[in-house]
Amino acid sequence: MKVAGGQVRIVDCSVFPAASTIAAALVEVEPGGLRELHWHPNNDEWQYFLEGQGRMTAFTSSGKARTFDFQAGDVGYVPFATGHYIENTGKEPLRFLEMFKSAYFADISLNQWMALSPQRMVQQNLNLDDATMANLRKDKQVIVPGRQ
User: Fold this and answer.
1) How far apart are the first and last CA of the chain?
2) Domain ranges across the chain
3) Which part of the chain is the Cupin type-1 domain (predicted)?
């Protein structure tokens, strides 16, 4: 899937039946862009960074966050259901693999989740105004392009 700011190619049992115990995504993020804030409801995520430089921040259920810098050859790990995003901090495209011990690839976008939830509930819980709510996307963005 090619989108503004990069692309994501997913391989799992839905497109490759032999992949009954593994799913993967090859992700490319253009400079300044990011893999949107999301989490995986089905398993831990292992990452292998192929090219470029990136920064990942992960948010745990205990209310703590950790930030890690990566470059080609590095390995990353995100525990099951942990919210995280990865930004390209370099001048070249960032390419990395996301891998899962699962037959299928699944992720939940925070932006999309909020947009599809009852507006009043989101506004009351997060103290958001109408303008902010209007900017939420009901479709999954996957990659957010950098600002020029």
Assistant:
1) 22
2) 2-144
3) 3-134
Per the annotation, the verdict on 98 as an active-site residue is yes
10-49: burial string, b at 16+ Cβ within 10 Å, e else: bebbeeeeebeeebbbebbbbbbbbbbbbbbebbebebbb
Given 36, 45, 87, 98, the catalytic residue = 98
CATH topology of domain 2-144: Jelly Rolls (2.60.120)
Mapping DSSP to helix (H, G, I), strand (E, B) and coil, where does residue 91 land?
coil
Rounded Cα distance between 31 and 34, Å, is 8
- pLDDT, one tens digit per residue, over 90-132 is 999 999 999 999 999 999 988 888 889 999 999 999 999 999 9
DSSP H/E element including 27: strand 23-29
Helical (H) or strand (E) element with 130: helix 130-134
Task: Give the DSSP H/E element, type plus range, for residue 131.
Answer: helix 130-134
